């Protein structure tokens, strides 16, 4: 079983690296945002620069999870190879596990430009141990977004999936405080922020890379969203299986 998972993971990564524009898009936009907003305005403040680096790291990772995964899943469903793999006796687990692992790899790659900008052009400070904890928190916070990406990709054709993923991604990222700190946003946005999953993921990362105490409501809602997204992705897979292969 592990060899099948590795084979599917390798396949997904090779497909992504052959057309790397998706990887570049998810990694360069957060780095450009760092250069435009964080470096000139908060680059000399170690606490603010560290938190902003963590936020924009997750912005890129979230893009890979939601937009990248939904696009590849929906495109694969339109290719003859995908129906064939579903007829194989191994079952869905190796394919789905390989897809999720490859997405985690792409999420981690997307944070590299932001880390470079934060290290070279700001006063952000982090120890190696906290960096590892931050990356683990990033992966954990990305789980519901990978599931959301699966749900979108399994329920919509490729053109619609990409549009819907972008519509979901940007408002959730903004309200969650990944672009601007929630404290400087309008009161209504600040009051909603703890209830979106991106805020819970950001709180998890901030707590991992600094001494910030996470908002318990945001963490609870992150868990709630993970359960909802898992149920939705499971339903979408079974619905697609029954509709296309029954």
Summary keywords:
246 residues; 81% helix
Q: What would you say about this model in short?
A:
The protein contains eleven helices and no strands. By secondary structure, the protein is mainly alpha-helical.
Task: Please explain how this structure is put together.
The structure is a single chain. This protein has one domain (2-245). It has 11 helices and no strands. The chain is mostly helical. It has helices at 2-18, 21-42, 46-77, 81-86, 93-110, 112-121, 128-155, 158-175, 187-192, 197-209, 216-245. The relative contact order is 0.15. Helix 2 (21-42) packs antiparallel against helix 3 (46-77) and helix 3 runs parallel beside helix 7.
Helix tally equals 11
State the end-to-end distance: 26 Å
- Give the percentage of residues in beta strands: under 5%
Could you describe the largest sheet, including whether it forms a barrel? none
Please write the string of helix (H) and strand (E) elements. Answer: HHHHHHHHHHH
**Tally of separate domains:** 1
Q: Globular, elongated, flat, extended or rod-shaped: what is the shape?
A: globular
Oligomeric state of shown chains: single chain
* CA-atom Rg in angstroms: 18 Å
Instruction: Give the total of beta strands.
Output: 0
What structural class do the secondary elements suggest? mainly alpha
Helix content: over 70%
Average per-residue pLDDT, rounded, comes to 90
Residue ranges: pLDDT <50 for 5 or more in a row?
none
Protein name: ABC transporter permease
Pfam families: ABC2_membrane (PF01061)
Subcellular location: Membrane
InterPro entries: ABC2_TM, ABC_2_transport, Nod_factor_ABC_transporter
């Amino acid at each position: 079983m592990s060899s099948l998972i590795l084979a599917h993971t390798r396949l997904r990564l090779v497909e992504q690296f052959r057309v790397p524009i998706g990887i570049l898009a998810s990694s360069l936009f957060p780095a450009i945002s760092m250069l435009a907003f964080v470096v000139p305005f908060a680059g000399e403040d170690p606490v603010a620069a560290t938190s902003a680096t963590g936020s924009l790291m997750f912005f890129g990772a979230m893009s890979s999870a939601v937009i990248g995964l939904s696009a590849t899943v929906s495109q694969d469903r339109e290719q003859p190879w995908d129906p064939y793999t579903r007829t194989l006796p191994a079952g869905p687990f190796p394919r789905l596990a390989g897809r999720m692992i490859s997405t985690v790899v792409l999420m981690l790659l997307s944070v590299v430009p932001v880390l470079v900008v934060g290290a070279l052009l700001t006063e952000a400070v982090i120890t190696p141990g906290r960096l590892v904890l931050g990356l683990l928190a990033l992966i954990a916070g990305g789980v519901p977004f990978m599931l959301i990406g699966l749900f979108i990709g399994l329920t919509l054709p490729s053109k619609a999936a990409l549009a819907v993923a972008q519509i979901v991604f940007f408002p959730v990222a903004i309200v969650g405080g990944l672009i601007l700190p929630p404290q400087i946003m309008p009161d209504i946005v600040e009051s909603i922020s703890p209830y979106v999953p991106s805020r819970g993921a950001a709180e998890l990362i901030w707590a991992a890379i600094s001494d910030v105490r996470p908002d318990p409501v945001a963490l609870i809602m992150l868990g709630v969203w993970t359960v909802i997204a898992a149920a939705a992705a499971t339903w979408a897979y079974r619905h697609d299986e029954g509709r296309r292969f029954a």
